[in-house]
Amino acid sequence: MPLEETGWLRRGACRSSDPELFFPLAPSSAQERRAKAVCARCEVLAECGAYALRAGETEGIWGGLTPQERRRSRFPAGWRTRASA
Ligand code: SF4
């Protein structure tokens, strides 16, 4: 990831959090809730989420979104139906 593209990371609320909270070996709903609570008070939430979508990050919580939530936002509900119509 180019350094200039991620300068906002230095202002991330997760800088003082355990990385395991955002990149867990065994994800759980409790871990997701705790990570999302950190993201909710983060001043670079929008930059982080936009970066993760643009970069196609497949792991971890970025911008308050899980990998599954990022996939859903890239392929909104009904996209398969529209494509096959
Ligand atoms: S939005 Fe969440 S993952 Fe992104 S920098 Fe902020 S706290 Fe970290």
From TrEMBL:
- Please give the chief subcellular localization of this protein: cytoplasm
| Annotated segments matching region Disordered | 62-85
Q: How is it modified after translation?
A: Upon Fe-S cluster removal intramolecular disulfide bonds are formed. The Fe-S cluster can be nitrosylated by nitric oxide (NO).
Residue ranges annotated as transmembrane are: none
* This protein's record includes keyword Cytoplasm: yes
Q: Which residues form the 4Fe-4S Wbl-type domain?
A: 13-72
Localization recorded for this chain is: Cytoplasm
**What PROSITE patterns does this protein's entry cite?**
4FE4S_WBL
Q: Which Pfam families match?
A: Whib (PF02467)
Q: Which domain of life is it from?
A: Bacteria
What does the UniProt cofactor note say? Binds 1 [4Fe-4S] cluster per subunit. Following nitrosylation of the [4Fe-4S] cluster binds 1 [4Fe-8(NO)] cluster per subunit.
Q: Keywords for this entry? A: 4Fe-4S, Cytoplasm, Disulfide bond, DNA-binding, Iron, Iron-sulfur, Metal-binding, Transcription, Transcription regulation
User: What cofactor is needed?
Assistant: [4Fe-4S] cluster
| Residues binding [4Fe-4S] cluster | C14, C39, C42, C48
Role summary = Acts as a transcriptional regulator. Probably redox-responsive. The apo- but not holo-form probably binds DNA.
Q: Which family does it belong to?
A: Belongs to the WhiB family.
Q: What is this protein called in UniProt?
A: Transcriptional regulator WhiB
Report the source organism. Nonomuraea roseoviolacea subsp. carminata
